[in-house]
Design goal:
single chain, alpha/beta, Helix Hairpins, Rossmann fold, Alpha-Beta Plaits, about 55% helix
């Protein structure tokens, strides 16, 4: 039986014994107050005094009440202690098990701050098949979370180490204000120089500071929201198409980035010679070179170099075939 149920059962038993004891003393001639008083002092083993002279019947009834009442009280007390201890142990053991799982993670995404932005981002990243580890200092936000989570200050080195920052693929800084995100970005960059960091900015002036602090990308949700609303006003069909392709999932086609490995047979070949469309069915919309520049709507003569990133559109199977070719 669960400890909480045992506690409830014990409390109900104590209440029932108190009622039975009170009724019994009333039958034996005690007043109502004296009957309750004698029952409580007997069950609690305090035993100040007998409020009335005891005869044989009173003594026998009191002996039975002591045996049953004290046994029930001890049962309830032990169940209460077990519930408290077991609850704490389960919490501690649960945290340790989760920390061990996180320690074995590779290429996961750490989301610092589980507010509205962090929640939406975590759900989308998890939907893409990535493991998500959430860090937030408010335990109420992490209740019944579908992701692995750590309660703590994300700007603390030990907390980030527990989140597996050394093995993470990316970190998202979406905690309170710009100052907190700035400190978090500095801390994360110092702990993991090669980590990809995305920071949220609330004010326009904070974007340059976050970039200098080590963020690879800085996102202002308010500005992006405004741009998307403007796009729906000026080009609603284009905006809706991109929204569906990137986020909705109702269309079969997806828009993905595919890095070209040094061992890939695509390296050193032009788009025409690679026959990507014929072999995989995916359509290359743009190529990002090692210098970070985009070549949009590339010509057939464009040469694919190892280290390039192909921005392609296609079905899941088509993009998977392209990724296989790009990996070599």
């Amino acid at each position: 039986m669960e400890p909480v149920r045992r506690v409830l059962l014990g409390l109900v038993g104590l209440l029932g014994i108190t009622v039975v004891g009170t009724v019994g003393y009333l039958v034996l001639g005690f007043t109502a107050v004296d009957a309750v008083y004698q029952t409580v002092t007997t069950i609690a083993t305090v035993g100040f005094r007998e409020v009335e002279p005891f005869g044989l019947a009173e003594k026998v009834f009191t002996i039975v009440l002591i045996l049953v009442g004290v046994g029930t009280a001890l049962f309830t007390l032990s169940a209460l202690v077990e519930a408290l201890v077991e609850g704490q142990l389960q919490a501690v053991l649960g945290r340790r098990r989760m920390e061990k799982r996180i320690g074995r993670r590779q290429d996961h995404v750490i989301v610092c701050g589980y507010g509205r932005v962090g929640r939406a981002l975590s759900e989308h990243v998890a939907g893409k098949g990535h493991h998500v580890v959430v860090v937030d200092r408010d335990p109420r936000k992490l209740e019944d979370l579908p992701f692995e989570a750590i309660i703590g200050d994300a700007t603390d080195d030990d907390v980030l180490a527990t989140a597996g920052i050394g093995q993470a693929q990316a970190l998202v800084a979406a905690v309170g204000g710009d100052a907190d995100n700035l400190v978090l970005t500095l801390t994360a960059r110092s702990l993991a120089p090669a980590l990809f960091i995305v920071s949220r900015a609330r004010l326009d002036g904070a974007e340059a500071k976050l970039m200098r602090a080590g963020a690879d990308r800085v996102v202002n949700p308010q500005r992006i929201g405004g741009h998307r609303m403007a796009a729906f006003v000026s080009s609603p069909h284009v905006a809706e198409f991109l929204d569906v392709v990137m986020h909705d999932g109702s269309l079969e086609f997806r828009l993905e980035e595919v890095p070209v490995d040094t061992r890939s047979p695509l390296g050193g070949r032009s788009l025409r010679d690679a026959h990507i469309r014929d072999h995989t069915g995916a359509l290359v919309l743009a190529i990002r070179g090692a210098d970070g520049a985009f070549a949009t709507n590339p010509a057939p003569e464009t040469v694919i170099e190892p280290g390039d990133v192909l921005i392609a559109i296609g079905t899941t199977d088509q993009l998977a075939a392209l990724a296989t070719s790009a990996r070599g």
